[in-house]
From TrEMBL:
InterPro entries: ACP-like_sf, PP-bd_ACP. This is Acyl carrier protein. Residues 2-80 form the Carrier domain. It comes from Flagellimonas chongwuensis.
Amino acid sequence: MTNDEKILTELKEIFIETLGHDNFELDGNTTANDVDGWDSVTHMMLINEVEKKYDMKFSLMDLMSLERVADLVKAIENRQA
């Protein structure tokens, strides 16, 4: 399993826990428009859970550049490096 795949698996767990359902596919191209219940409020909840999971804080610039799940994976990898 690559690091990208590991992070994506961990993110799926966070999404399921936060959104309260698993009726979605999560891959690099997934956006908020693709997932029921992923709105502005749950987006901030997701970011908060990701920051806790990976013991990091995203900058405002990081947050503004997150359009797809792949962007979130890349931001996590950059912080881990």
